[in-house]
Write a structure and sequence with these properties.
Blueprint: E1 7-19, E2 33-34, E3 37-43, E4 46-52, E5 55-56, E6 70-80, E7 89-100
Parallel strand pairs: 4-7
Antiparallel strand pairs: 1-3, 1-6, 2-5, 3-4, 6-7
């Protein structure tokens, strides 16, 4: 896919906000990651799942968003085929999030 592993800027509204559990990442991170969360970023053209990686060993250090916030997200796009079909799945790994004023 042409967007795989490209950084993009997205803008939309936070929907379906889900807090993550403390996680030990499989990339060799030597500690538990706290404050991770996911949400659906929605605009008039569609939606994409956004994942926010937590921080190592410091609960409360990541600024979270709220349901309904209008945000700009700088994200690294991951495109993959989950089950071998022709259908692609996309995930935006947030690199930076800015909450905007008003809708």
């Amino acid at each position: 896919m042409s967007y795989h592993l490209h950084s993009v800027t997205l803008q939309g509204t936070v929907r379906t906000l889900q807090a993550g559990l403390p996680t030990v990442w499989e990339d060799g991170s030597p500690c538990e990651q706290y404050d991770s969360y996911r949400f659906t970023l929605e605009d008039q053209t569609g939606s994409i799942e956004v994942a926010v990686r937590g921080v190592c060993g410091r609960p409360g250090a990541v600024r979270t968003v709220s349901e309904g916030d209008h945000v700009t997200v700088l994200a690294l796009i991951h495109a993959f085929q989950g089950d071998g079909t022709a259908l692609w799945a996309f995930l935006a790994m947030a690199q930076e999030i800015m909450v905007l004023k008003g809708p």
